[in-house]
Amino acid sequence: MKLHEIITTNEKGTSAILTELLYKYKKSLYIYYKDLFCCEPVLMVTTVFNAAQYAIIVPSNEFNEAIEHYLNNDNMSEEDRESEKELISFQSIMLKDF
User: Fold this and answer.
1) Which of 27, 28, 36, 82 has the alpha carbon at shortest distance from 59?
2) Is-contact 48 93, C-beta < 8 A?
3) How far apart are CA 3 and CA 21, in angstroms?
């Protein structure tokens, strides 16, 4: 996946990207999103498997809204939604620390 494809996919906010694909562009992504968001970008880790992680890059000042936007696509109970929010918050890191 090329850099412009990552940025286009990330703009949707509902499609997570394999973090392995993001790693080689981490400096370019950090610079791009730091300028775009005018705040620190966060790597919102949405799914973790044994061998892979999927994430979306979001602004730090809209982190909670980004989680809500991502979870709005799923039909789940309120208890499961709260559990998923907590899990995503725990797994996520600042993009500069990636």
Assistant:
1) 36
2) no
3) 9
Half-sphere exposure of 25 (CA within 13 A, CB side): 18
CB 6 within 8 A of CB 25: yes
Among 71, 76, 77, 72, residue whose Cα is nearest residue 89:
71
66-90 confidence digits (pLDDT tens)? 999 888 866 888 899 999 999 999 9
Residue with tokens 């044994």: 50
For the chain, the domains span 3-97
Confidence of residue 54 (pLDDT cuts 50, 70, 90): very high
